[in-house]
Amino acid sequence: MSEPPLAPPTGPPPPPPAERPRRSRPGWWGWAALLCLGAVLLTAAGLDRRAAPAGDRTVGEVTRVGVRQGEAIAGYLRAAEAELVTLPPGAAYALVSFDAYLPPGRLPALLAGVEVARVIVRVPLPDRQTEVVRLAAYRLPQDVVSGMATLADRKDREAADQRVRAANAVDAELRRVYDTGAQVAAREAAAYRVGCGCVYAALVRGGPDVLRALAARPGVRGVDPAPEVRRLERTVLTPPLPEQHDVARPPADTALVPTGPPVGDSSEAAPAVISSSPPFPVGGAVPKPAVTS
Fold it and tell me: Can you state the angle between helices 172-193 and 142-168, rounded to 10 degrees?
């Protein structure tokens, strides 16, 4: 028996099915903006990696080796000797101070057996504060002689500059200071040009036994171990001056004592020219000697 036909539906027809919302696609302006944003982010990430290298904790730190101003020199030397006795195995840096100002030719025999990184020089003029300079010295005495020749040229330029300042100075006291500066710089230039007896300390590297043997050599005043030194460009060296035996202090300079009425800040001398030295590459290539005060 067949089923009866279905009756036609009554009422309003059902609404058509809702269409799926379409995902909007960016136009070419949108793609360009996204590409620019990506390039900026990648560049910033690269700069951030270069600006903050990982693993180097010595950046920004300064290591000081030597005697402090106002410290008793005898106490400093005793402390250095005691530290040298208990120095653990392994190569370490050490600041070697001499009991006299030495010419470059004396250094090879005195520092034989150790790796030399720097020497400290100063022209010992009576009653004058001459500039203390660090010279890179990997080959003795050649690098020291070369560094002194560079110093002599710089001191000649400083003397000429001081003479010009003196000629242009209106104040008599200021003119006297510039004249004195020119005279001192000229005497420093003349001394360095002939390889003067001006070296009074050195920064070396060696094992404990080698450093102890070095401390016993005639002419060596003291050996101050500095195993904490890692970056020479971030290390300040302050060895005692050979002529000082009680307390570390700047040398007296009679030229700094005013001879007339006070003139205030205008009596200050012109600042010295300072250049930097490269870091010491342990086991690496030998760079050209450099000068740094």
Answer: 160
Q: Are residues 141 and 108 in contact, defined by beta-carbon separation less than 8 angstroms? A: yes
Per-residue pLDDT tens over the stretch 122-179:
999 998 999 999 999 999 999 999 999 999 999 999 999 999 999 999 999 999 999 9
Hey, how many other C-beta atoms are within 10 angstroms of the C-beta on 66? 22
Percent of the chain with pLDDT over 90: 62
Q: Is the pLDDT of residue 261 over 70?
A: no
Residue-level pLDDT at 16: 52
Buried b (16+ CB within 10 A) or exposed e, 159-175: bebbbebbeebeeebbe
pTM assigned to the model: 0.69
Three-state DSSP string of the chain: CCCCCCCCCCCCCCCCCCCCCCCCCCCHHHHHHHHHHHHHHHHHHHHHHHHCCCCCCCCCCCEEEECCCCCEHHHHHHHHHHHHHCCCCCCEEEEEEEEEEECHHHHHHHCCCCEEEEEEECCCCCCCCCCCEEEECCCCCHHHHHHHHHHHHHHHHHHHHHHHHHHHCCCHHHHHHHHHHHHHHHHHHHHHHCCCCCEEEEEEEECHHHHHHHHCCCCEEEEEEECCCCCHHHEEEECCCCCCCCECCCCCCHHHCCCCCCCHHHHCCCCCCCCCCCCCCCCCCCCCCCEEC
Measured CA to CA, the distance from residue 47 to residue 170 in angstroms comes to: 51
Whether the per-residue pLDDT at 276 is higher than 70: the answer is no
The per-residue pLDDT for range 214-229, each reduced to its tens digit, is: 999 999 999 999 999 9
Cβ count within 10 A of residue 291: 20
Q: Are 67 and 248 in contact (CB under 8 A)?
A: yes
